Structure to design on (320 residues):
């Protein structure tokens, strides 16, 4: 039987080993340089991707009230590593009414060639008829852009995001039974709040699996994750490229009175028929406007004006 002194010595030894283990674990976390190198490796494997998306969107009436509207949507995506994109989207859209809201059928097509985003929208009562067109400097957002589940991200690549301000690997976390890194940005103070972004990155597979945007009024209180999206059920599509078969995205509102967070909107979706690095036709990212519609000019300086028929024809002439 150990003496009290021997027992204390054993306890001290265990504590010392525990502390050294914790320190060792912290020291063995990959550095941001390691993460960036892994991102570059993953990005080199993707030139373009195509995927079919089906989703259900739930949206609260932003004018107030408790009613939440549900809309089914589906989209066929083509996106390139340098940001060009094409999609054809169909489903249900939300419409505001004098009292409450409703949903109605919609169909739209959009192309972005890196310079201008061209889109056409179909008549809700007849989805075979084009009713309007639009040209803009940037593509409109529809659902969950699939590249946001890759290192290519959206407007910016993941490397460009990490270069904007200091990020660090803060810890490890579990995601669907796998150990991933939690990368957190240095908090930014704006409008009386602190803001940050957390990126959950699977180092082995080279893919971001979750992103959370968070804010708080003081660095002494917990973060509120007000927007979170997560990729689920990842599959290796081509050697070295893992992409999700399911995703979910939610946003919340946090009130000053400390009441529970309030759901704002969100998606639950599936991806299928992933295709990577296929040969694409030259005209995949260009769109010509039908002669019988007017085109709304949302480019810088366009001020939302309708283009004349001649101006629309001039835009069509630029399309090869």
């Amino acid at each position: 039987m150990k003496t009290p002194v021997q027992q204390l010595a054993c306890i001290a030894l265990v504590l010392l080993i525990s502390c050294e283990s914790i320190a060792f674990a912290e020291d063995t976390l990959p550095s941001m340089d390691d993460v960036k190198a892994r991102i570059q490796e993953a990005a080199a494997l993707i030139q373009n991707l195509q995927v079919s998306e089906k989703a259900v969107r739930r949206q609260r009436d932003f004018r107030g009230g408790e009613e939440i509207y549900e809309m089914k949507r589906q989209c066929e995506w083509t996106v390139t590593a340098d940001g060009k994109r094409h999609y054809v989207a169909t489903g249900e859209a939300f419409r505001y009414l004098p009292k409450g809201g409703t949903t109605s059928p919609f169909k739209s097509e959009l192309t972005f060639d890196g310079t201008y985003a061209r889109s056409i929208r179909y008549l809700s009562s007849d989805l075979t008829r084009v009713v309007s067109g639009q040209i803009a400097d940037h593509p409109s957002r529809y659902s969950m852009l699939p590249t946001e589940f890759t290192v290519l991200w959206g407007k910016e690549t993941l490397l460009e995001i990490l270069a904007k301000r200091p990020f660090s690997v803060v810890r490890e976390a579990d995601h669907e039974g796998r150990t991933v890194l939690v990368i957190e940005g240095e908090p930014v103070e704006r409008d009386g709040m602190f803001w940050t972004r957390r990126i959950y990155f699977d180092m082995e597979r080279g893919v971001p699996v979750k992103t959370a945007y968070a804010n708080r009024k003081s660095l002494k209180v917990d973060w509120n994750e007000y927007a979170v999206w997560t990729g689920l059920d990842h599959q290796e599509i081509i050697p070295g490229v893992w992409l999700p078969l399911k995703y979910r995205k939610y946003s919340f509102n946090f009130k000053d009175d400390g009441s529970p967070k309030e759901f704002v909107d969100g998606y639950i979706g599936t991806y299928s028929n992933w295709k990577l690095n296929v040969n694409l036709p030259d005209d995949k990212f260009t769109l010509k406007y039908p002669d019988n519609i007017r085109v709304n000019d949302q480019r810088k300086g366009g001020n939302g004006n309708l283009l004349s028929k001649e101006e629309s024809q001039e835009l069509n002439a630029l399309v090869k």
